[in-house]
Design brief:
The complex is a heterodimer of chains A (about 200) and B (about 90).
Chain A: H1 2-6, H2 8-11, H3 14-34, E1 37-38, E2 46-47, H4 53-78, H5 84-94, H6 109-123, H7 129-161, H8 165-193
Antiparallel strand pairs in A: 1-2
Helix pairs in contact in A: 3-4, 3-5, 4-5, 4-8, 5-7, 6-7
Chain B: E1 17-22, E2 29-35, H1 44-55, H2 60-67, H3 71-91
Antiparallel strand pairs in B: 1-2
Helix pairs in contact in B: 2-3
Classes of the chains: A mainly alpha (about 200), B alpha+beta (about 90).
């Protein structure tokens, strides 16, 4: 069970992982449209009351492409035998924990709670207990899912590049930061170009 | 139980060498100081891996399916064994 949840890359073939990852990508993209969730960065999830199909597809595709390309370049530095497919499956599988986050925004609940908090802060009014409880629960769920996602990402990267020691860890952290920044920049640029 | 061939000194962890060989048929003994071949200096698991590698004609994909592991896991293990053999070669 531990292998399945944290280290599937050590056991399962790339074909199976790719199929599962692509299926999850498709389901995640549809869910993020249905529940108005913007995955506008490799480690981002923001809730709103509307999102277009173009935006949701663009967000998810840019996240996967940015993270895969950057981890692949880092992988090549560590081990020249690194294969693109192993990092693509790593990224696709590691994004699975992000998709259940969309359920926080069923009926735009997360968006409304966040909006209520912002309004209260701006007008110095009392925040309702339900909004605070909702926020705390959401933060705990989001943190747990992000930890799971990063663990999957690291384990997949380690397997794909045969990474060992401090160098592999430092390059992994650097790759995540660069991927986060570049995905944000690419999403904003493409959104402006496509006038989304 | 089949006894394992010790390859490192239990006292100081240095590599062991062969000092005596015996013929199982006539019990003739040969004494000397022979270095263990690289393959025998690997752990039993690593030797088993090399054996499987030969038996699958070097197909890592076939080994992965036989071992129930993914391709990169098997390739990483092979890379680790290659590194270990390189280290042993440098030491000798």
């Amino acid at each position: 069970m531990k292998t399945l949840l944290l280290k599937p890359f050590e056991r399962y073939s790339e074909t199976l992982l790719l199929l599962v990852g692509l299926l999850a990508f498709a389901v995640g993209t549809v869910l993020s449209k249905l529940f108005n969730t913007h995955f506008d960065g490799v480690l981002d999830a923001h809730f709103s009351n509307t999102i277009s199909w173009t935006e949701t597809i663009l967000n998810n595709t840019v996240n996967v492409v940015c993270l895969t390309v950057i981890l692949f370049l880092v992988g090549k530095i560590i081990n020249h035998k690194t294969r693109l497919v192993d990092l693509l499956t790593t990224v696709l599988i590691a994004r699975i924990p992000f998709y259940p986050l969309v359920f926080c925004n069923v009926g735009n609940k997360a968006f409304k709670s966040g909006d209520e908090l912002v309004q209260s802060a701006q007008h110095h009014t009392q925040v309702s207990t339900s909004a605070i409880v909702m926020l705390v629960i959401m933060v705990l769920i989001i943190l747990a899912l992000i930890v799971w996602s990063v663990s999957l990402l690291y384990n997949g990267y380690k397997t794909a590049v045969n990474g060992k020691g401090m160098k592999a860890i430092v390059l992994f952290i650097a790759a995540i930061i660069v991927a986060e920044i570049s995905s944000k920049v690419v999403i904003v640029s493409l959104s402006n170009t496509l006038k989304l | 139980m089949k006894p394992k061939l010790p390859v490192t000194c239990p006292s100081c962890q240095s590599s062991l060498s062969v000092s005596q060989l015996t013929c199982n048929t006539c019990q003739t003994g040969v004494s000397g100081n022979y270095e263990l071949p690289f393959l025998l200096q690997l752990t039993p698991d690593e030797q088993q891996f090399v054996f499987q590698f030969v038996m699958t004609s070097g197909s890592l994909k076939e080994m992965a399916s036989q071992m129930g592991n993914s391709y990169p896991t098997v390739r990483n293990k092979l890379d680790d064994i290659i590194s270990k053999i390189n280290e042993l070669q440098q030491k000798s």
